Amino acid sequence: MLAAGIPARSAVPSTTDPKPIWHPSPNFGDRRDGLTPSLIVLHYTAMDSAQAALDRLCDPAFEVSAHYLIGSDGTLWQLVREEDRAWHAGAGEWRGRTDINSRSIGIELDNLGTHPFPEPQMTTLEWLLARIMARWAIAPDGVIGHSDMAPGRKVDPGPRFPWQRLEHLNFAGQRGQDDGPQEASMPLFRALAQQMGFSPETDDDTLLATVRLRYRPWAKGPLEPADFTPLGHAALWT
Prior knowledge:
The protein has helices spanning 50-57, 100-103, 119-136, 146-149, 163-168, 186-196, 204-215; strands at 21-22, 28-29, 39-44, 68-70, 76-78, 85-86, 104-109, 143-145. By secondary structure, it is α/β, with parallel strands linked by helices. A 6-stranded mixed β-sheet has the order 1-5-4-7-3-8, with helices on both faces. A hairpin with a 5-residue loop joins strand 4 and strand 5. It is globular. It starts with 20 loop residues before the first strand and ends in a 23-residue tail after the last helix. The model is unreliable at 1-16 (pLDDT under 50).
C-alpha cells in the first residue's frame, strides 16, 4: 500500500528497460516551475552497504532519495521516476541556477569514498548514463558531481571517482589540455571556474579545493598554473 499523499503514478518505473529493479521511495515530489532534467548529479552513499543506503533512501523519516542507486556489484535500483523530483542535491547551484533537484537526475553509487569504484559498478553507471542522456538530451557537460554544485558542503563522488574515464566515453565534459598561465591569478581562475559552472559565491580556498577535487584531487598547496589547465580557455593567458 502506498503511503498517504504519495501519488499512484509513483508505483511504476519510468523506463521500459527491464534492468533496473524498481524499489519505490516515498521521498519525492513534482519538479517545480515546469523544469525537466538538464543535469545528472553523481553521489557516493558513504554507507556500509547498498542495502543500508537503499533503506535510508526509502525511509520517509530521513527525507532523502535519489532516482537510482548502483551497488558495488553493478546491481541497479530505481527509486524515483525520472519525471519526478528526487531529494538528493540539497542547497547549491550550477551555472548560476538553483533548485538542482528540479533540474537533475540523481545517481547514488555504493561507495564509502575511500576506495576505487568497482568495474561492475562503473559498467552499470555507463549503461545508465547513456540512456538517461539520450532520453533527456543531456549534454556531457551536464554530468556533474555533488561536490561541483555544493562546494564546501559536499565532497562526493570524491577523489577516487574516475572522471577521466567518463570524459573519454563522452559521458562528462572534456577538460582542457593546454598549459596554464605563467602566473597563477586568482581573479582569472575564479572567472574561468564560474564560466565552467562553479558558484561565484564560493570563497577562494573552497573554490580551489572544489575544482581540484573534480580535476586534480592529488594537488596540494596554493593556486598554481596547472590548476588552470582543466578549465581550458588558454587564449585568455597566452
